[in-house]
């Protein structure tokens, strides 16, 4: 399968702690994206990192990309209860304008 | 939800009946996608469109057809629904370039 594989599948932390989730993949990519999905809702784009970038920040989010290891990580700092959601990585190869999604990490932030 | 609506939002139907789901966008984006989301599988692409009347298959296209007669509308049809098509269906749109997609709110379909 070309999809990203995410680790862990589920993560439970306390409010204020940092949350880290990882995505590994096998194919070559143009960019890698992270999405959030709240229960019962559609996915929301969080951040995009290009294949020639190593790190990117957006507010409390930090994404790293290691193309030699074919892996990415998403760090959410100072987690809040509102961060409780599923997080998906998505691979963009460029040629077909299609995204390949991972199976997601379910994050639960306890107040 | 970035100017994307899906209808209906919920539907229960019987095995063997035809079902059509509608995705409507107000963003004038070229690309439109239909996904299904099932536990343990993440999002899987059913069909996508790269322009009016231009469509192509995704990884799970069997049993589904699509049509796009206008830029703003992308229809997904289950010709004869089966219980294995019980799922949550999401529509998404995208511009060219980065592949960033914007998702609709989803349609929960139950086939009994």
Biggest sheet descriptor of chain A: 6 strands, mixed
Helix content of chain B: under 10%
Secondary-structure element pattern of chain A, one letter each = EEEEEEEEEEE
Rounded radius of gyration of chain A (Å):
13 Å
What structural class do the secondary elements of chain B suggest? Answer: mainly beta
Figure out the total of helices of chain A: 0
Percent of residues in beta strands of chain A: over 45%
> Structural class, judged by helices and strands of chain A?
mainly beta
Tally of strands of chain A: 11
Biggest interchain interface, per-side counts: A-B, 22 and 27 residues
Unreliable runs of chain A: none
Distance between the termini of chain B: 30 Å
> Ends of chain A: how far apart?
37 Å
The best one-word shape of chain B is: globular
| SS elements, strand count of chain B | 11
Query: If you compute it from the alpha carbons, what radius of gyration of chain B comes out, rounded to the nearest whole angstrom?
Result: 13 Å
> What share of residues are in beta strands of chain B?
over 45%
Can you tell me about this structure?
The complex is a heterodimer of chains A (111) and B (112). Chain A is mainly β. Chain A contains no helices and eleven strands. Chain A starts with a strand and ends with a strand. In chain A, 37% of the residues are buried. By secondary structure, chain B is an all-beta fold. Chain B contains no helices and eleven strands. In chain B, strands 2, 4, 5, 6, 9, 10 and 11 form a seven-stranded mixed sheet that branches. In chain B, β4 and β5 (42-51) form a beta hairpin. The termini of chain B are far apart. The model of chain B has no long low-confidence stretch (mean pLDDT 94). Chain A binds chain B through residues 3, 30-31, 33, 40-45, 48, 88, 90, 92, 94, 97-99, 101-104, and chain B through 1, 4, 31, 33, 35, 40-45, 48, 50, 58, 90, 92, 94, 96, 98-106.
């Amino acid at each position: 399968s070309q999809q990203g594989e995410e680790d862990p599948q589920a993560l439970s932390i306390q409010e204020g702690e940092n949350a880290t989730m990882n995505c590994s993949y096998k194919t070559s990519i143009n960019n890698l994206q992270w999405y959030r999905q709240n229960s019962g809702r559609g996915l929301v784009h969080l951040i995009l990192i290009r294949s020639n970038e190593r790190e990117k920040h957006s507010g409390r989010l930090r994404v790293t990309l290691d193309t030699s290891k074919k892996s990415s990580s998403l760090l959410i700092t100072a987690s809040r209860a509102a961060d409780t959601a599923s997080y998906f990585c998505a691979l963009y190869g460029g040629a077909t304008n299609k995204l390949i999604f991972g199976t997601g990490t379910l994050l639960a932030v306890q107040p | 939800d970035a100017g994307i609506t899906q209808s209906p939002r919920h539907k229960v139907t019987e095995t063997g009946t035809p079902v059509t789901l509608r995705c409507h966008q107000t963003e004038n984006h070229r690309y439109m996608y239909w996904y299904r989301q099932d536990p343990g599988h993440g999002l899987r692409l059913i069909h996508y469109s790269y322009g009016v009347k231009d469509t192509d298959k995704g990884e799970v296209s069997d049993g589904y057809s699509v049509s796009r007669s206008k830029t703003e509308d992308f229809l997904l049809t289950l010709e004869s629904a089966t219980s294995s098509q019980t799922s949550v269906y999401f529509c998404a749109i995208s511009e060219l370039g980065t592949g960033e997609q914007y998702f609709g709110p989803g349609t929960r379909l139950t086939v009994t």
